[in-house]
């Protein structure tokens, strides 16, 4: 129970939805009561009509039945004119409160996430920027060493790749031949190659009955020797942007180096216009 109360205190939207649910239940209760009053009106009308048509009924009985009918009709009018409309207005008001509480909840959640992210940024970014700077410096120093070694290669050694060529670039690859052989290939009478060689049975083109086919019907096919070359297409190399070209900004712009002072030479009477 204590846990549920804690949730309600922490989430006003849940409380607002509960209040809205109560308003809906209240309307349902009022509508049930109105239905009973409507039945009472019908019964009172029948009783009053019976009393009015009874020649032996006393004036007091007729007056009592008339009063009961009047009271029932007044109560029914109260339900229609005040009670039911007020219950509907309560639901509409509760709906507006629910929407507002949900917006407030989303706002506060966003504010909390922003606060946590800002705290993490302030705490972690300086170290991250330093680590990145140290990493870039290490890459540059290694590349300088590679360049020096490549200008004076030992006998039989290949030039070294730079750090980012080795780790970040996609090297180009030439077209690779998987197989190259001469095969007898089935062809239609028109000379077109049969796209699916398995569809030729005993020299006849026999496609399946369903699905896309190259030719409708069956024709006599013939085999023609062809050089069949299977290859993997060439891959174009890709070079990524260099780490040194990506400079992390300072955490705050005010942390950047201040601008150099400027000197202006103005007439004495315009000294106040210096900008």
List its traits.
54% helix, mainly alpha, two-stranded antiparallel sheet, 275 residues, 10% strand, single chain, 4 strands
Gist of the model:
It contains four helices and four strands; from the N terminus they run H-H-H-H-E-E-E-E.
Please characterize this protein's 3D structure.
- With 275 residues, the protein is mainly alpha-helical.
- Among the domains are: 2-122; 173-228, no CATH class.
- It has helices spanning 2-10, 12-53, 59-150, 163-167; strands at 176-187, 200-201, 204-205, 222-232.
- The strands form 2 sheets. Strands 1-4 form a two-stranded antiparallel sheet.
- The longest helix has 92 residues, at 59-150.
- The model is unreliable at 4-8 (pLDDT under 50).
How large is the radius of gyration? 46 Å
Q: Given the C-alpha coordinates, what overall shape results?
A: flat
> What series of H and E elements makes up the topology?
HHHHEEEE
First-residue to last-residue Cα separation: 68 Å
Low-confidence stretches: 4-8
- The number of helical elements comes to 4
Proportion of residues in helical segments: 40-55%
Q: Widest sheet: strand order?
A: 1-4
Structural class of the secondary structure composition? mainly alpha
Mean pLDDT: 88
What percent strand? 5-15%
Note the quaternary state here.
Answer: single chain
Number of strands: 4
Largest sheet: 2 strands, antiparallel
């Amino acid at each position: 129970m204590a846990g549920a109360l804690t949730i309600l205190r922490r989430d006003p939207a849940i409380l607002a939805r509960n209040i809205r649910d109560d308003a809906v239940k209240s309307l349902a209760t009022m509508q049930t009561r109105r239905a009973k009053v409507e039945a009472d009106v019908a019964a009172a009308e029948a009783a009053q009509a019976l009393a009015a048509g009874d020649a032996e009924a006393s004036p007091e009985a007729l007056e009592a039945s008339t009063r009961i009918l009047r009271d029932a009709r007044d109560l029914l009018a109260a339900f229609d004119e005040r009670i039911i409309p007020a219950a509907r207005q309560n639901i509409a008001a509760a709906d507006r409160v629910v929407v507002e509480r949900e917006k407030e909840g989303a706002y506060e959640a966003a504010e909390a996430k922003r606060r946590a992210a800002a705290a993490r940024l302030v705490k972690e970014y300086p170290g991250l920027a330093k680590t990145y700077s140290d990493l870039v410096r290490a890459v540059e120093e290694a590349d300088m060493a590679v360049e020096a070694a490549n200008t004076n290669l030992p006998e039989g050694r290949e030039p070294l790749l730079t750090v980012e060529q080795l780790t970040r670039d996609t090297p180009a690859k030439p077209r690779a031949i998987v197989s190259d052989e001469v095969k007898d290939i089935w062809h239609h009478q028109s000379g077109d190659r049969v796209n699916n060689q398995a569809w030729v049975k005993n020299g006849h083109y026999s496609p399946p009955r369903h699905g896309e086919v190259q030719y409708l019907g069956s024709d006599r096919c013939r085999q023609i020797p062809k050089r069949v070359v299977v290859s993997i297409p060439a891959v174009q190399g890709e070079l990524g942007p260099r780490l040194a070209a990506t400079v992390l900004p300072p955490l705050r712009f005010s942390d950047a180096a201040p601008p150099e002072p400027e000197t202006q030479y103005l007439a004495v009477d315009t000294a106040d216009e210096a900008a």
